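Side project, low priority. Logging it here so it doesn't get lost.
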Amino acid sequence: MTDKVVVGLDQNQELEADIVKLCYTNNEVNVLNYMEEGYSKDDIIELVDNDTFTDFVENYTFKLHCTHLDPYTDKEDIHEEFPGYMMLTGIQPLKYEKNIEKFFCCQNLSLGYHRDYLLDKLWDADLFKDGYISYWQAKQGDDDDNLYAKYLNDIKNKTLHRKWQDQIYKWFDYEEYEDRLVYDYWDNPPPPHKTWNATVFNIVTESYFDVPTHNTKYLSEKTYSCLFQAQPFVLVGCQHQHKYLQDAGFLLYDDVFDYSFDALPTIEQRIDALVDQIKNLNNTWALQKRLEERAFKNQEIIFKKIQNMELPDILFSNEHRFLPYAKKHRDDIFYAKTFVDKYV
C-alpha cells in the first residue's frame, strides 16, 4: 500500500466511500469535511465497529479533519483541527441596507436551556415588542444529538415559564444567498439580511454556555456572520466569551454595553444582567451610529483575518488522492477564501 486518500461526505452527510475498504487499499485515510466538532477516537471506532479499521486508527494512519473539538472531547493524534474554518462559514455577499423597525434580533435554532432562559427574561422585561425573535426549538439529530441530550439534562429542576411559546416566530427566511458558500444549510445557515437590516443589533446565542474558560473560543457562524455583515451584536454564551473576542483582535461595543456581565459565573447571572442593560438602553439615532461605526471596523478586521488566513497543508498536497466530495469541499474552501478578496 502506498496511497494516501482523502474522503468526504456526500449530500446526505454520509461517507462517499466504504471506510473499511479504504483501509485495505491505502496506507493513510483522511476524512475531510471540517465538521463543526470532531469526535473522539473511541466514538469513531465504536461507530465503524470493524477490527481492521480499529487497527488503522490505533496505528495513527487515520486522520479526522474537523473545525474544532467538542468542548468535552480531548485532542488526540487522529485530530487535525482548522478553527479558522468557522470564519469561512460566515461568509455571504454583503447586503447592508438599514431600515430600522425593531431594536434587536435574536434568532435561535437548536434547543438550549440558555435560549429558553433568555426568552423567559426578555418576555418578563416586556422586550418582545422591541425585537424580532425566533426559536425553531430543533433537534440537530436523533439519538446522537449531544446538544439535545445536554438540553434535557440542563432543564431538569429548572423553573422556566415559556410564556412566549405561542407568540414567537419559528425562523426568519434567508432571502438571497450564494449557495456555494453554504456548507451545511441546516447547521450553518446564511444570514437573513432583511431581518438583520431592520434591527440595530443581534443577541447571538452560541451553542455552549457552561464549559470552562479555556473552551470559550468555540465561536460559530452565528458570530462570524455578524462580524462579516457589519451587524452589531452581543453574545449569550460562555463566561469571558467577549474577552476572547477582544483577545482575538476584534472590538467590543463597550461604549454601549457594559461587559462586566461577561465575567459573572453563571449563565443565569449573565443573562439577567444583559437583559437589564437592554431594557435600559434607548434606541436613539446616536446609539445606532455608535454601534454601526464599531461594526464596520470589525468588518475590516475580519476581512483581513480571512485574507491572511493560513489554510491546512493537506489542501495543497500532491501526495493525497482526493475523492470527488473531498475535492469539492477543498475547492469550496479555496473559493470562500478568495471570495473575500474583493471586499478588502
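Brief comment: The mean pLDDT is 92.
Revisit when time allows.
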